[in-house]
Hints:
Blueprint: E1 12-13, E2 19-20, H1 22-32, E3 38-43, H2 49-57, E4 62-65, H3 73-84, E5 124-128, H4 131-134, E6 143-147, H5 150-158, H6 174-199, E7 202-207, E8 215-218, H7 219-230, E9 239-241, H8 249-253, E10 265-269, E11 275-280, E12 283-288, H9 290-295, H10 297-301, H11 303-309, E13 315-321, E14 330-332, H12 336-343, E15 351-358, E16 363-368, H13 374-385, H14 393-396, E17 397-401, E18 407-410, E19 416-418, E20 422-429, E21 436-439, H15 455-461, H16 468-475, E22 480-485, E23 488-494, E24 501-508, E25 512-515, E26 521-527, E27 530-534, E28 543-546, E29 550-553, E30 559-565, E31 569-576
Parallel strand pairs: 1-11, 3-5, 3-6, 4-5, 6-7
Antiparallel strand pairs: 2-8, 7-8, 9-10, 10-13, 11-12, 13-20, 14-21, 15-18, 15-20, 16-17, 16-19, 22-23, 23-24, 24-31, 25-30, 26-29, 26-31, 27-28, 27-30
Amino acid sequence: xxxxxxxxxxxxxxxxxxxxxxxxxxxxxxxxxxxxxxxxxxxxxxxxxxxxxxxxxxxxxxxxxxxxxxxxxxxxxxxxxxxxxxxxxxxxxxxxxxxxxxxxxxxxxxxxxxxxxxxxxxxxxxxxxxxxxxxxxxxxxxxxxxxxxxxxxxxxxxxxxxxxxxxxxxxxxxxxxxxxxxxxxxxxxxxxxxxxxxxxxxxxxxxxxxxxxxxxxxxxxxxxxxxxxxxxxxxxxxxxxxxxxxxxxxxxxxxxxxxxxxxxxxxxxxxxxxxxxxxxxxxxxxxxxxxxxxxxxxxxxxxxxxxxxxxxxxxxxxxxxxxxxxxxxxxxxxxxxxxxxxxxxxxxxxxxxxxxxxxxxxxxxxxxxxxxxxxxxxxxxxxxxxxxxxxxxxxxxxxxxxxxxxxxxxxxxxxxxxxxxxxxxxxxxxxxxxxxxxxxxxxxxxxxxxxxxxxxxxxxxxxxxxxxxxxxxxxxxxxxxxxxxxxxxxxxxxxxxxxxxxxxxxxxxxxxxxxxxxxxxxxxxxxxxxxxxxxxxxxxxxxxxxxxxxxxxxxxxxxxxxxxxxxxxxxxxxxxxxxxx
Length: 581
């Protein structure tokens, strides 16, 4: 284990300054919109709506809460019931649109319109999710948008602080709140926000991810930041989280709080979950990194990747730290067929484990042993779920020794588990909650309760033919040297042919040239202190990365070089296979 200068607050510089505090925000809007009788302050779900209602009441305007105009909560629950299902974790991807949350004939401009008494006499501010939609029939209504990072929303779920879209579900468990967000709310609001961004109606953006420090920038500043981000190497803002199996490696290497019991997770590149920082005069403005995907999908992803995946970032990098911790759950991911049929997903979570570090006794559980009794295995898993036995994983699953820089490929349907005393860089496709836990080692979750087990779903997707010979020949350290010359070694490390992600490892003591070949690249510096990314054509300023940092190279960059700083370096690079574009 070693220290690093891992940057926990990467940012993109923008011109101008950031407006801070409610007084300054309200004063700026009052001056900019002085002649507008109606304002729209649109909110992403998960904001503290009461803060906005209270703040804008100070303007002297009549405040209209968009929730008061929505259909009754019972109707909205019925509208979304088929997508929520009765499962504690899994739902079905919603095709509801935001306009369905209001009555078919929203009485704008009529006698029953709550805005009518104030139109032309008393000024109005509409506050809440969909404010711009409610105000769209009035001409020249200025809009400010308060965006929210999904990771911060999840923290608020855990504290039972925020309502869902049109529904007060604060008493639900965090997992159920997350399920509604993932399967319904975020899907709806991202679609709406994307259309709003394209319309050009937004004048200002508000950041209240830190409740006591609200901030605001202009739409021009935000667009400048997204443009600059999409045309240069960049990093999203990593976030760290404890886990029942969590370890101690990231505390040291990433310089995290020593007061936490452990850190199991780091989402180092999951744009749908992570944030992006824009920086002006040393002040950071936070927004979802998904916004750069929405605004610049073709430049970022590349034409062919965009043509297949749309405005969805298909590659995910995250860390799993079990150093001085425990085993992950024994698990399996659904096949594409199952994910599409049962959850409405376009693709599943194929993945791999790349060992950033490992202790001498580190192991990986991967694939099934030869000649096992599959019926008995499922019965044993069910009995373990009931608490009658401890499941004998080694009777059924291969337990392989793992060492630093090993790479284990895990196509969907393969039973797997990272063992204790490992530091895994997980490289996978993006869907984020599609893990069927089969066995959790008699362990409770951080909330003191057993974590949900999915033997009945898992049994339908386990690929029983993936036994020891398959594991050893196709998915355990399947390296292929592509070139080996003075100072540069390039290896193909996978992923498995069933998966759409290609990975390459470069070991280099001199600059090595790369090319996006028209598709987005995601890399991690898996060895070495630091490296410098440069453009031979001068398309971007030199960009420095450090050990264990994940960084994104937009497709539009084309050729780029990575130069080691201070000794030999190693990177792992993921891209979408040409045949899958």
